Amino acid sequence: MSLSPSSLSIQTRDFAILTANVNLANDATVKQVNFTSADSNIAMVDPSSVFSSPYRTSIFGVRVGSTTISATTLLNPSGSCTAPSPTTISIEASAWFQTQGGDIHAQGSLSDKIPATATDRNLSLDLNNYPGIISHLPDSQVSFGEGYPSKSTAGNWLAPSAYQGKPYGSFDFFKKKYALQMTTDNFNGSLPGTDGVYYSADGETLNSDQGDWDLTGNRWLIILVDGDVTIPFNVIVNEGSFLAIASSGNITFGSNVRKAQGMFVANGTIDTGSGDKDFAGQGIFAASGFGLNRDFGDARNRTTPAETFVARPDFLMSSYKDADNNLWWFYQKWQELAP
Known about the structure:
This protein is mainly beta.
């Protein structure tokens, strides 16, 4: 008998199929084929015994490392044989993501495949000595792989709680606040030359004659698109400037985008694209769902997140330009009280 393939490489939490090829002689028949992992903490087999052809089992990657899978065939009426060469199994880390400073909320399940080999095994890293709060619906599922929410503690800064704040993370918020500015279709995908609120009644792909969008000199822009938005290049927002892009559909970044800075809001999905280049987001990202499909596809996954999202506290101040150009709604009044 023999095993095929003779070697396998899969990522953690993924599956692969291993087949035992049995050649019988004389009148013998197969009673069962037993599969065994040399280290089930690295790779598991299921089922461990197969009683009919084809003699296959599923290999599940548990954690980063290498091990072997062997197989033994029990024969009728008696006897057995063992595959002379076990299959070598290499388990690599899956791609994963990380945040720094900003709060995270999932109005549903939240999953990250942080490996034990990560340089920092926390989903939310400190920014100015504080990580972000991670919240999720009480009845939803959360998983951090072999990592932690933050501070290398199982339940630290983790809150099972529905979102109770204002709906800044939706296109409807912008539509309500800037209804008057959304009567004129004045955005065609190019970077506007003057500050203000811009609107497109259809989906748009951002374009530029100079490569990336780079906002300098205290720029202030709100771009509202009633449709999907495609971003094929880097978007850089320097301190003192502000950019918000809100879509009634999806926001999709190209596979070559390495930097995305600003406030990105989608009623649909924010998709960071695919490929083996890292994605560095800075600012605010809000959507009904996220497609995080960057993957180094090599040993970098063991230590480094393919996608990172870092808070930009300066956006809270630069989102206010003047009384007419701002994202601030004031519901409270402040009054000094006598001591």
